[in-house]
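Structure first, sequence second, as always.
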């Protein structure tokens, strides 16, 4: 997360980077993913941010309880 954020500047990105830097465990980092996504989206756009987040999300495999994994989004069709 830090390496992705450090390639960008700005106060809001640095604030998120500081929160990532001081996260105490994997669970805290898991919940910071959304903040990282928002910061990256503001700079690079949502599509680029999602591509960057794929690599970050893969780092959490096997490190979190099953209930904390990424959710499969289902679309409702009528």
């Amino acid at each position: 997360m830090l390496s992705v954020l450090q390639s960008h500047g700005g106060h809001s990105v640095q604030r998120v980077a500081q929160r990532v830097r001081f996260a105490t465990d994997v669970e805290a980092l898991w919940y910071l993913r959304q903040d990282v996504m928002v910061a990256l989206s503001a700079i690079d756009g949502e599509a680029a941010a999602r591509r960057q987040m794929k690599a970050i999300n893969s780092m959490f495999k096997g490190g979190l309880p099953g209930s904390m994994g990424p959710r499969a989004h289902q679309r409702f069709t009528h």
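Margin note: The two ends are 39 Å apart (CA to CA).
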